[in-house]
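Task: encode each sequence below as structure tokens.

Item 1
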Amino acid sequence: MKETELSPIITEWLVGNGYQVYYEVPVRGSYRYIDVVGRRGDNHTIAIELKRSLSLQVVHQAMRLTRVAHRVYCAVGSRNPKQKTIDNCQRWNLGVLSLADYKVKTILEAADNPQPHIYMMRVDAQLSEVGGLPARRGEGHAITVIGRVMDYLKEHPQASWAELYDRVPNHYAHPKSMRSAIEGKVNKKTVW
């Protein structure tokens, strides 16, 4: 199964447990994205990294999120991940979910982080309607943001970069980083 095929399975599980679901959520001050985030009304958050199998790569990706969510899981399409990798997840307080056979099976429960820095997640700026998107040339988050900026500028041609940053869902740390990354890629003659 591809990561994008795992996304609907985990979405159904999160919704069934009372969470609102967000995809490809940027983490402030970094170029990292969380494949799937679940947030309940009490602001309890779950961050989930999707991969086809439980590898050190997904463990490292998930480890970086332990400070921003109450619980962090590696959700994988395989049935029987290696015990050594599960032990690594336990060491880092990560949970492991198997999504084989289109069902969520908890292999290892994630430890609770009582005081995560949830303000670091920009759920208001989700960049997709599905999680686990691959990063390919000519596709991805920056291209999505550029399209959104151009659409916004058609309606608001005098918008400042601060306004664009506040009004257009994006993954940038602040207006200056947004401007420096995409200013040259936005067709000013068409938009401004």
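Item 2
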Amino acid sequence: MPSPRLSSASWGWWHGRPPWRRPLHPTCPPRPTRQPQVQPGSPQAPSGGFIELRVSFTPQGLQALAHWQELWTVVQWQDRAGAWHDVTGWQGTLDEANPTEGKKVWWVADEDLGTGPFHWVLYQGRTGRELACSEPFDLPGAVGETVRVQVLLSTP
């Protein structure tokens, strides 16, 4: 006696889930839900401001790096004695990149507006060597402002 043939639709119901409720890729691990990115200056932007790092890549610099996702950015603040200290909450990889430029954005709370000096440091990985350092800058002076800081990453 031949075995009954199951269509793809009946297979899903037979295994306890309708076909439209099964995962598309059951072998992929679950991924966190990304929070929507609020663009600086948009009506939904929270109070405060933004700092934005723009890393320009030379062709040689980008080829030598191979993986821009491994670049580690750190914002540092300068004390009265001139020493630089990492800002714990403003460290991480670039948010996005294309063949010529990478970008990282951090939100600045109202109470921190107008303070400084700060600078960005770019490392080759979280514990790697320093690749670039920006000029000192102050945080935005008013709600809704964005301070953009540019660094050039040539051959490391």
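Check on item 2: Helices lie at 8-14, 59-65. Residues 8-14 form the longest helix (7 residues).
End of task.
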